[in-house]
Write a structure and sequence with these properties.
16 helices; 10% strand; 5-stranded mixed sheet; alpha+beta; Arc Repressor Mutant, subunit A; single chain
């Protein structure tokens, strides 16, 4: 019997995020095919809402756009931010006493470097947020800018806190997009749409922790900043990431929620509460892993669907095929043919 080898599956990214990344090109009337091909992405995938690309391909696309446009915001702003601008803003944070003062200085640095997006610290009850003000006329053409800014701010907060800081909520001033179900993979907390403004929220007390980063740490961060923003490296301490890692390590056997909770030294109820706080669930984390494994196997092997279903922990092929179609919008056999 053939089983999936317990190797780490590739993380996949919805084609919706690729569309967002390319929105800066589109508003300039530039066809994206050249950059997609450089990243190993078939341009035909743009016409398939259910399509996914690997995280490596997405990172390569970010790098290709940034380099060729010499713009760290890949055409999303009114004027380009040359490569190295983010590094300059980050250097201004060195020497800040606390995480909060670092975030406040980053907001100030941002206002000096560009005119479109306003950043400011705001408070409510026992939480402090970084508010993002984006011109209303940017929607819907540049709605991706809301996502991009909160991803950058989340990664910044994780770096400043050495991975310890946890976001409590992501507020979006825009309506829920068609790909809102994908948000749980990049925004590990409760997500709310149609809010008065876009913001990322933290426990106020947690922002009083000292900021202990130096030039060497900044150099390492900037060397892999694209990957860390895309994959949110540094979120390994998030419960959802630990659940996924636990499920991966146990393959080919599939653990249930109680078994994972036991391995993480907590009760099943506590595990469920943590996952809800991150805007996800045990089943969703498990299904995202199974989806990524299925896509990888469909694209790279000829493994029969019955065997793939068994290896992914499904009772039969029909159940797997229904689940896969719910995940991607396509039956697995159709997805395999289209991917080749």
């Amino acid at each position: 019997m053939t089983t999936l080898r317990p190797l780490r599956p590739p993380v996949t990214v919805s084609i919706a995020f690729v569309h967002g990344l390319l929105s800066g090109l589109r508003r300039r009337g530039i066809a994206p095919d050249e950059w997609l091909q450089r990243a190993g992405i078939d341009p035909a995938l743009l016409a398939r809402p259910e399509a996914r690309v690997s995280a490596d391909q997405y990172i390569a696309l970010v790098a290709a756009l940034t380099e060729s446009m010499d713009d760290e915001f890949v055409g999303l702003l009114s004027r380009p931010l040359s490569r190295g601008t983010l590094n300059l803003a980050m250097r201004s944070l060195l020497g800040c006493a606390t995480i909060e003062s670092s975030l406040r200085r980053f907001c100030k640095a941002s206002s000096l470097l560009q005119d479109d997006v306003g950043l400011s610290l705001v408070s409510r009850a026992d939480q402090t947020g970084v508010r993002v003000d984006i011109p209303p006329e940017f929607y819907p053409e540049r709605a991706f800018l809301h996502e991009a800014m909160l991803r950058i701010l989340l990664r910044l907060a994780l770096w400043l806190s050495n991975g310890r800081l946890r976001a409590r909520e992501f507020s979006f001033a825009i309506p829920s997009p068609a790909h809102a179900a994908e948000y749980s993979t990049v925004f590990p907390a409760n997500v709310r749409f149609e809010q008065p403004f876009t913001a990322i929220w933290f426990d106020a007390a947690a922002l009083q922790a000292p900021m202990c980063r130096d030039v060497a740490a900044l150099r390492e961060f900037m060397a892999r900043s694209t990957a860390t923003v895309v994959l949110l490296e540094g979120c390994e301490r998030a419960i959802s990431a630990r659940v996924r890692a636990c499920l991966e390590s146990a393959r080919p056997r599939w653990l249930d929620q109680s078994e994972v909770a036991e391995r993480l030294h907590m009760s099943a109820r506590t595990l469920q509460r943590h996952l809800v706080n991150e805007g996800t669930s045990f089943q969703l984390v498990k299904d995202q892993l199974r989806r990524d494994l299925a896509i990888a196997r469909l694209m790279t092997t000829r493994l029969p669907l019955t065997q793939l279903a068994e290896d992914l922990g499904f009772s039969d092929s029909a159940t797997f095929q229904r689940a896969f179609k719910a995940w991607t919008g396509k039956a697995p056999a159709v997805y395999r043919r289209m991917a080749r």
